[in-house]
Amino acid sequence: MDSKVLKEKKKSLVWRFFKKPLDKSIEKVKCPSCSDSVVYKGTTSGLMSHLTRRHKSDYAKIVKSSQLEESEEKNTQKGSAEILLAKSFATGLIPFKFSENPEFRLFLNSVAPDFKAPNGSKIKNLVDESYAEHLDFLQNKLKNVNKFSMMTDGYSDQKRNIHVYSLHVSFLDEDFDRQILFCGLRSVSAGDNVSVASVLTDIMDDVGLRMSKCSAMCSDAGSPLVLMAEKHGFDRVHCGCHLLNLIIRDFAEEKVVKKKHAHIANFARFLSRNKEEKEKLAAMTKQNGVQSCLPLPLPATRWGALHTLFNQYLEVYDSAKDLSKLKEFLVKPSELEVIKEIRDLVKPVHECILRLEKDTSSTSEIIPALVFIKDKTERTGSVLSSKLLSLIKNRLDASMENRRILCSMLLDHRFAYNKKYIQPLSWDIVEIYLEFYDENEEIDDPNDSVEMAEDDNDNFDSFLSSGYEKTSKKCDIKDELLKYRALLATNRPSYQSPITFWKGHKDNFPRLSSIASNLLATPGSSAVSERTFRRKSGQTEPDGNESESDSDDNEDTCGSADKSCTADEIESMFSDDEQL
Length: 580
Known about the structure:
alpha/beta, five-stranded mixed sheet, 49% helix
């Protein structure tokens, strides 16, 4: 369809001179200059004729003004198109010089004849300008932030000696709303903790933050990041999604699971290499009313990949029976039952991964997720479930040693003082841990009487009675914890988010809410940083999980790189490109 048809019909120039009537059926419109009544009846031809004949100078001014506006609009559209093109090159890791490719320019000319593609140098400059604008935005947004959490993830290509790290920060603003901001993506000279820490510090400097103000880091368990957190003295929260995926990964090493996984992975590889058979199976599954995607190879680092692959295999199994070239991938009924059991065992783990990778998740949900998975697994009572249960308990025990996670749970009204989430520990111990995060000066309690001044003790009776006056006491964290425990014991609120709870109770618990603004700023996973390295610009499903269209990728790549990464950093990933 012609693009011009899609454009909104332009407003007639006559309405820049005449006053447009609300009623289109009106017969005449009064001229604002000569006061003549001009025939209208819903059409502008008579008005235009009057304007061009009787008021030529006014008409010329209107036309000139309109042409200037159109010119400015075209320049704006061209500028926007150039910026979008530059960003697509950056996020797609396309060398900037590709814009000068003759075939690419012919393609652009065929779809947009009026658009002239900028050269490589211009695209590089546009990316730099976009980066500078993003820095200004971040500096303004972060100028009053005193405590924040950082989320980071890395990508390495050992063959090309490339190491890249991303940085996001999160904090609760003055309205008690969580803000998660992308700060940057930088190449690192080496993958050690010193190099990584130096680059992350540089990114923070650019946006006006200081590493010393970082309260916690949420990331995977990479040794450079673990050591960096230890050296800098801030809390480290093991990314909840990565933690749960390690349970699946370790479970996949069990002999039975490993064997079934290899069989299904071979099936997925066969489909990816045989387009005709894949199309036949897709048509067959659709005919059978199955909505599941076909099993295709998934990257080893894909969270919950085992459950996804097993579930897809089982969904299309009956359809595969009717295709001659898929017979080798069928199994005995007893083996099929084992595959179903494995699928069902890891399903709760995958469900919790999907929950924790949402940007709205909280660190306080990590241990409850493990408790939920443990309870579900204990109900099965099979040999395989006992092996999975052992892996779950190991991860749960390790998480119970994390002071920040425990204190976040205490400040989450959904879990606080519930014994099943904390056993074998007690909430009294966690209350002691919480005092570590109390950095507020003592607050006077307005309900207490004030100590009498010395001038009031000028006679003997006043002096004697002064001994019975209450002395001024301070609102300390223990007082607030008692009130908080009492509130939850009598009427536990039903808010779905702990942040929402503290937004409404920050005036009642000033000290606890101040601690909550620090602890609850940390999400339950570093998924926001992990998504930075997904191919195809991080197209995600509503649940935050990677779209199935990415399932044929063989490995995680830097595809959705930094939207504001400098041109030099992106160009450094293309060692075979000439310097611009």
